[in-house]
Amino acid sequence: MSQDEVKQLKLYLEFLQEGGVEYIPKGSHPSPRAEEASPLPKSADTGPLEEARELLGDCKRCPLWETRNHLVFGEGDPHAQLMFVGEAPGREEDLQGRPFVGQAGKLLTQFLQGIGFSRDEVYIANILKCRPPGNRTPQPQEIEACLPFLLKQIQAIQPQIICTLGAIATQTLLGQKASITRIRGQSLPWRWGIKLFPTFHPAYLLRNPGQKKKAYQDFLQLKEMLETQG
Ligand code: SF4
User: Fold this and answer.
1) Ligand 1 near 11 CB (within 6 A)
2) How confident is the model at residue 194 (pLDDT cuts 50, 70, 90)?
3) What is the pLDDT of residues 112-135, one digit of tens each?
4) Which ligand 1 atom sits closest to the C-alpha of 128?
């Protein structure tokens, strides 16, 4: 096993341990659970986020490295109260190395501006950091390889709310199948005292503009939640 693989395994085991998993039955692949745990201790600098980026390095932990132009780590306020997690970089994101900069990203930015936020005031990331060819759905083994680094980012940022964009991000962080249409717009308890708030993926809204109104209502609710939590 290479040094990188050992580090990756260590991260994954830490993540499981923090979620209360004490042993792993042979052949099983536990997923993150929607369960509360004690809040994280607050960090004062961006060190943990930089550490996660350094650990990720020029990642080749799944086959997506072979077709990427740029790895898209994420960007925004390292101490943001509100974090967005989408599915994976698309074409434009892969070209620029930045999350949500294509048409879907423009819509996300508009919604954010609508509730009085700039992109710099939130943190934006994806489940996968490399683009699946042709924007296909992420494979379970790709998610398994990449997820520990998103969890490290979340641990570093310590947001109050994670808004998951679309079914893949929602189901991955919840660790269970769920219909985005059914659970969107709800505040769900997650781990480390953080709340999950699923809504539609902006790319879905571009294909189904009739749902934009519902999505914007979700953003208004997000704003209210942040104001209430203070
Ligand atoms: S998708 Fe994630 S695990 Fe796969 S190569 Fe990219 S950074 Fe590494």
Assistant:
1) no
2) very high
3) 999 999 999 999 999 999 999 999
4) 1
* Cα 113 → chain centroid: 20
Which tokens belong to 92? 């434009």
Q: Is the per-residue pLDDT at 187 higher than 50?
A: yes
CA–CA separation, 21 vs 130, rounded Å? Answer: 28
Q: Is the CB of 119 under 6 A from ligand 1?
A: no
CA gyration radius for the chain? 17
Tell me: pLDDT of 192 over 60. yes
> 40 falls in which pLDDT band (50, 70, 90)?
very low
Query: What confidence tens digit (pLDDT) does each residue in 52-103 have?
Result: 999 999 999 999 999 999 999 999 999 999 999 999 999 999 999 999 999 9
Exposure string over 119-129, b if 16+ CB within 10 A, otherwise e: beebbbbbbbb
Domains and CATH numbers, the chain: 3-11+47-229 (3.40.470.10)
127 lines ligand 1 (CB under 6 A): no
User: Which atom of ligand 1 is the closest one to the Cα of 88?
Assistant: 1
Instruction: Taking residues 198-219, report their average pLDDT.
Output: 98
